[in-house]
Write a structure and sequence with these properties.
This protein has 282 residues and is an alpha+beta fold. It has 2 domains: 125 residues, no CATH class; 144 residues, no CATH class. The protein has a 4-stranded antiparallel sheet, with no helix packed on it. Strand 10 and strand 11 form a beta hairpin. Helix 1 packs antiparallel against helix 7. The longest helix has 28 residues.
Amino acid sequence: MPPVTFRIGVEVAHLIPENSPLTGGLFPTLSHAVAAISAAAHRQWVQYASGMALPDGKVINPRTGEYARSIQLRQLGDFSAEVYTNLAYAAGIEHGMPARDLKRMLDYSLKVRLTKDGRRYLIIPFRWNNPNSVLGNNMPQEVHDWWHGPGRTPSAITGVHRRLSGTGAYDIKTRQQITVPARTYSWGSRMGKSDLAELGVTGPLAKRMEGMVNFRKPNARGGAAHSKFMTFRVMIEGSPGWKAPAVEGKWPARTVAQQLQPVAEQAFGKAIEEDVKRLLGG
């Protein structure tokens, strides 16, 4: 399914007097006004996407900057342009999202496992980034330093095998029970609750970071090893957790369109007036 496209369109051909040739050469002032207004719309939308507060005080967390970079300006003709984004999660930023139970993925994930009493569960990995990373989910500097202390050993993936999917589903072609890839690990140091407490990390953050492990991949060029810091959490059927609250829409595209509409109408009206006067020799 193609991603939803959000657009701010600028189209003024219908404003040009009837029977007039629709060329930028005959209506240069209007053509310039369309380009200027569409550029202003693009600039304003990118500013909101980059963290500038909207008029109602809402702020979009830029995090990676992917949303801002996805906003594009396209000229469709002398009198038509659009500012748009094809980013998949732009819908959530614009309209918001309803509250949802993340455990619904237990209904369709082939990687589901089963407990001894028959409850479905998934092991969910979470990656932690360096303290100054723009990707978010950053670990405190104290935790990062802890991993570079003496005696810290990395974990490693030692192999990949196939296991039966906990769904019990069968492949319609082979008529065999579906299998999914599973990794085997050699575990190294693991950050415990007491380690976090000694570093001054407590409360919900400590709960999320407890059990962190470090995977290190050697650098093929001989430099420092590339590290990944991971925690693993269990999503289990019947758990009261794993519920995402509703997210209110921030409406950046709609706001830009509403802000520029009166400005655009005035600019286009004056531009058409100037171009018609020039055509009539006035």
